[in-house]
Amino acid sequence: MNIILLGPPGAGKGTQADRLVKARGMVQLSTGDMLRAAVKAGTPTGLKAKAVMDAGQLVSDDIVSGIIGDALDGIEPGHGGIFDGYPRTQAQAVSLDEILDARGRTLDHVIELSVDEDKLVERIVGRFTCAQCGAGYHDSFKLPKVSGTCDVCGSHEFKRRPDDNEETVRTRMAEYRAKTQPILPYYEAKGLVSRVDGMADIDHVGAAIDAILDAKG
Ligand code: AP5
């Protein structure tokens, strides 16, 4: 099964993808994570992408569709993919169809996380992760049990994304409204879209997604 998680920054795409990886053995394909890894490694793609990402704008369609195709090639047959943050434009949606088709895969669900954008700014600006193991935390909702120490690996080093400041988050949301939300009718016409209330708590959002995946198989 291959699915798209669609929603604006902070809607919970990464959180739910992570849960599906653990619960169902699916593989998360996050273009944001792949681009951040390329930036960190200083690859040519990373060098091109860094300034665009820091400004909250979209990286070019060719770059992201290329890295998604490569990532999909790394998934063993029989394992489903969770597209997290891809596609984000109409051109990417068309590319994804071609990429899946060329690999004998089909798209089974597009799950839109509906959210109240004003509340998302708090979600994003407050989040941080362990620099060692990547465990996620939040200033308001989920602090480490022992202050300054990661619950999972005991590290004392944490980091925040450079694009998680309020001004950039507003740009990212505007990009979502202008370029990503308009691709929904493309998938609605194929009967693939289900909507989930992304403002419910994490477990309820997860249960709603599970119900969709289990109902349609
Ligand atoms: P990307 O990394 O994809 O960022 P994003 O879409 O802005 O999404 P986020 O990771 O910020 O949010 P999320 O929905 O995953 O929420 P999360 O689960 O973390 O992209 C970054 C940049 O890369 C883009 O701006 C662009 O430049 C570039 N890029 C990436 N893909 C691209 C593409 N296809 N084309 C072109 N450019 C591309 O949750 C957020 C917080 O909320 C966490 O703290 C979490 O714990 C908390 N939370 C989650 N769910 C809930 C809940 N239900 N209740 C309470 N708290 C919750």
Write up this protein.
48% of the residues lie in helices and 15% in strands. The chain has helices at residues 13-24, 31-41, 44-54, 61-73, 90-102, 117-125, 166-180, 184-188, 202-216; strands spanning 3-6, 27-30, 81-84, 109-114, 127-130, 136-138, 158-159, 193-197. Helix 2 (31-41) crosses helix 3, helix 4 runs parallel beside helix 5 (90-102) and helix 6 crosses helix 7. The longest helix has 15 residues, at 166-180. The model has no long low-confidence stretch (mean pLDDT 94). BIS(adenosine)-5'-pentaphosphate (AP5) binds at residues 7, 9-15, 31-32, 35, 52-53, 56-59, 64, 85-86, 88, 92, 123-124, 127, 136, 138, 141, 163, 172, 198, 201-202, 205. BIS(adenosine)-5'-pentaphosphate is lined by residues 7, 9-15, 31-32, 35, 52-53, 56-59, 64, 85-86, 88, 92, 123-124, 127, 136, 138, 141, 163, 172, 198, 201-202, 205.
Low-confidence stretches: none
Number of DSSP-assigned strands: 8
Bound small-molecule species: BIS(adenosine)-5'-pentaphosphate
Query: How would you state the average pLDDT, rounded?
Result: 94
Rg of Cα set: 17 Å
Give the H and E element order. EHEHHHEHEHEEEHHEH
Beta content comes to 5-15%
Query: Which strand order does the major sheet show?
Result: 2-3-1-4-8
* SS element count, helices: 9
Structural class: alpha/beta
